[in-house]
Amino acid sequence: MALVELLLSPLPAHVRTARLVAVAAARRAGLDDELVDELRLAVGEACSRAVGLHGRHAPVSPVRLTVTDDANGLTLSVTDVGPAAGPVLDDAGEVLLAGPDTGGLDELADPDVALALLHGLVDELTVHSEPGGTVVTMRWPLPAGAVGARATIVAQR
Amino acid sequence: MDLSLSTRSEDGPGGPRTVVVVGGEIDVYTAPKLREQLIDLVSSGQYHLVVDMEGVEFLDSTGLGVLVGGLKRVRAHEGSLRLVCTQERILKIFRITGLTKVFPIHASVEEAVAASD
Questions:
Q1: Integer CA distances (angstroms), A98 to A50, A131, B75, in order
Q2: Which residues of chain A make contact with B28, given a CB cutoff of 8 A?
Q3: A118, A42 contact by CB (below 8 A)
């Protein structure tokens, strides 16, 4: 079960909601302050990208954000149902799926720019694209001694 | 916090400069307002801009895109766009994206207004 699971209407205003929720969950789990800043930016980028894609391709489907933790780290996943992130190649290098078509109209929230920044920002990043959408998963280490938010909650009961 | 914007004119050695004071969060929701402001300034003939970002609490790639777009527009008129920022959290974003090489970044509005092109 996720620590926190959030379904966002794909509206730019809710990207801030996602940042606030993710940061609150990360602080509760004991993530270092410096990494919280990194997480705030990364979650914003991942959600901006997903919201932008939904706005163009799936305006009534929510974007899903989950925060989970275990003994070693905190994992955030942002799931969209938009077109695949970038061209997806098969083993022989043939293009299975083209990248998302942004129509060349929108200089804001370019999904490729957001992903490029995420690759530079987050050490542990995976981008898993399928025909039905993309899951961007980011992971940050929790300091030794931080037992994670869920363990804390259980201990308090 | 939402985005706050205000502009004022200051005279520098190189001529008048328009100082745009930005506060709050620049993200996918608020960046269009900043973009409109920069477009309006350039449309009204103000090609030398100083963007004061000391009050900015959050900046993402959408905000960077708007600043790059503003730079492109003023450069088309042989203008300039200088940033004022001393916050490490915001400077880090310019560094990891390589944009410190693109934007002149100053420690104060006075310094940015005094800089010649």
A1: 17, 10, 34
A2: 12, 15, 44, 48, 51-52, 108-109
A3: yes
Torsion sign (Cα): A74, A80, A86, A87: positive
User: Which of B28, B31, B58 shows the shortest C-beta gap to A51?
Assistant: B28
Decide: helix, strand or coil at residue B25.
Answer: strand
What digits encode the pLDDT tens for the residues B48-97?
999 999 999 999 999 999 999 999 999 999 999 999 999 999 998 899 88
Q: Are A148 and A30 in contact (CB under 8 A)?
A: yes
The whole model's pTM is what? 0.82
- Per-residue pLDDT tens over the stretch A26-63: 999 999 999 999 999 999 999 999 999 998 888 999 99
Contacts with B29 from chain A: Cβ below 8 Å:
12-13, 15-16
Best residue of B30, B56, B58, B61 to probe chain A, by most A CBs closer than 10 Å: B61
* Tokens found for residue B89: 């959290």
Report the gap between the CA of A109 and the closest CA in chain B (Å): 5
User: What pLDDT is attached to residue B1?
Assistant: 67
Residue, of A2 and A86, whose pLDDT is higher: A2
* Interchain CB contact of B24 with A (< 8 Å): no
